[in-house]
Specification:
The complex is a heterodimer of chains A (107) and B (122). With 107 residues, chain A is an all-beta fold. Chain A is 0% helix and 49% strand. Classes of the chains: A mainly beta (107), B mainly beta (122).
Amino acid sequence: DIQMTQSPSTLSASVGDRVTITCRASQSVDRWLAWYQQKPGKAPKVLIYEASVLQSGVPSRFSGSGSGTEFTLTISSLQPEDVAAYYCHQYKTSSNMFGQGAKVELK
Amino acid sequence: EVQLLESGGGLVQPGGSLRLSCAASGFTFSSYAVYWVRQAPGKGLEWVSGISGSGGRTDYADSVKGRFTISRDNSKNTLDLQMNSLTAEDTALYYCAKGHGDYAPSNYFDYWGQGTLVTVSS
């Protein structure tokens, strides 16, 4: 199975900061990677699919990049409502592995 | 509007069984793969199982293979998960999620339900 590793596990940043989360796959997933945001007590919500395609309705401060085994999710200017856990998800194979998550907090 | 509504969660003893259901609306159910994803308390997301639009293909995480069975009824727009031989490690919030398309072999999940809680404890 393809393993997904996110870093960092937790990060603290100030409003307006640029935030970057990395996701590494144990083998190539091409561009079959999605990013989800999960706020406390809520279901996950897709932000990005196919590594860099912004889901409709998602603010443009979110962006994704990468291919193969290394991917990044960037929040260009952190807002208070972005406090959440973020998960990457490979969907190249039917094993559908998620990363362990990255929690974004306000400093 | 796409809606996914899970039900069937509850408290069950180790070794017991439980059947979860997900009622779908707002899209052509038979055209899309659907999935179960779980989240243990305070932990991350874990994919559990998926089923193609026709129901002809199913997949399971190694952690549940042989114990859980996914099924769907396209005439009723429902997705089920039969869970047997439950252990404490199965305690989690179980989400139903819609795939963006049919099996390809997989999809990203574009809509999620609110989840149903399964607690395995004596």
